[in-house]
Amino acid sequence: MPAIEIAPSILSADLTRLAEQVKEAEAAGAERIHVDVMDGRFVPNLTFGPIMVEAVRRSTKVIIEAHLMIVEPERYIPDFAKAGADIIQVHQETCPHLHRTIQQIHELGSKACVVLNPSTPLVTIEEILGDVDEVLIMTVNPGFGGQKFLETTLPKIAHLRQMLNGRGLRCDLEADGGIGPATAPALVKAGANVLVAGAAVYKAKQSVAAAIQAIRAAAQTG
Ligand code: DX5
Ligand code: ZN
């Protein structure tokens, strides 16, 4: 199993202090910064575009992942790559030509990740597993921070880990939504090695550093 990585989501950060909040996460050892891009069409909410990725890029050297919850992501992928996204994450549900979209991301020099909603079965990505750097399993329905973790996603994560191991694939398995110290152990036990956390990092009562440490400590018991 690869080492556990934590990816704080700036969706829940205090955006009046963006650079500071990103730097706090970096100083606390966060391996990635997660940027949630929403278009009001694929998901019922609007958030950030490439200029947000650019602003985060200027604030940190940490890996940036752009989670594209948008229809027709292929239209904007070049802008996100140019803005400095190291990993571009596209939803299977938005990509009728997923293989082509993954190729497009790779040609632009970024890593490619395919994302599945809670209700989308693993069989829809079986043929693409060998071509992606990462799979992200949504553990809430995408659209908002601070939602409740869906326990039904745990067997799906375990099954995906089995599929990856069975095929000798070293791609990362990330989980996103409702993750904190209480849910991290079961996710890691199921086989996730990258954990996104928004509210648990940026809306916690303790400092960003203490919140990240709490998630990491819990994950290590998984
Ligand atoms: C949900 C987003 C998540 C969100 C996670 O649509 O994709 O990345 O920021 O937030 P929490 O950790 O608060 O569920
Ligand atoms: Zn996300």
Task: Give a description of the structure.
This protein has 8 helices and 8 strands. It is α/β, with parallel strands linked by helices. It starts with a strand and ends with a helix. The protein binds D-xylitol-5-phosphate and zinc ion (ZN). The site of D-xylitol-5-phosphate (DX5) has 22 residues, from strand 2, strand 8 and helix 7.
Distance between the termini: 12 Å
Give the averaged pLDDT, no decimals.
98
Give the uncertain stretches in residue-range form.
none
**Which structural category do the helix and sheet elements fall into?**
alpha/beta
Q: Counting H and I runs of at least 4 residues, what is the number of helices?
A: 8
Overall 3D geometry?
A: globular
How much β-strand is present in the residues?
15-25%
**Spatial strand arrangement across the major sheet:** 1-8-7-6-5-4-3-2
Biggest pleated sheet: 8 strands, parallel
- Could you spell the SSE succession in H and E letters? EHEHEHEHEEHEHEHH
Helix content: 25-40%
User: How many DSSP-defined strands?
Assistant: 8
Bound molecules: D-xylitol-5-phosphate, zinc ion
Radius of gyration computed on alpha carbons: 16 Å
Descriptive keywords:
single chain; 222 residues; alpha/beta; 8-stranded parallel β-sheet; binds D-xylitol-5-phosphate; binds zinc ion
In short:
This protein is an alpha/beta fold.
Topology:
Layout (H helix, E strand, L loop, with lengths): L4 E4 L9 H10 L4 E7 L11 H10 L3 E7 L7 H7 L3 E5 L6 H10 L3 E6 L17 E5 L14 H14 L5 E5 L7 H7 L3 E4 L1 H4 L5 H13 L2
Parallel strand pairs: 1-8, 2-3, 3-4, 4-5, 5-6, 6-7, 7-8
Helix pairs in contact: 1-2, 2-3, 5-6, 6-8
Bound molecules: D-xylitol-5-phosphate and zinc ion.
D-xylitol-5-phosphate (DX5) binds next to β2, β8 and α7.
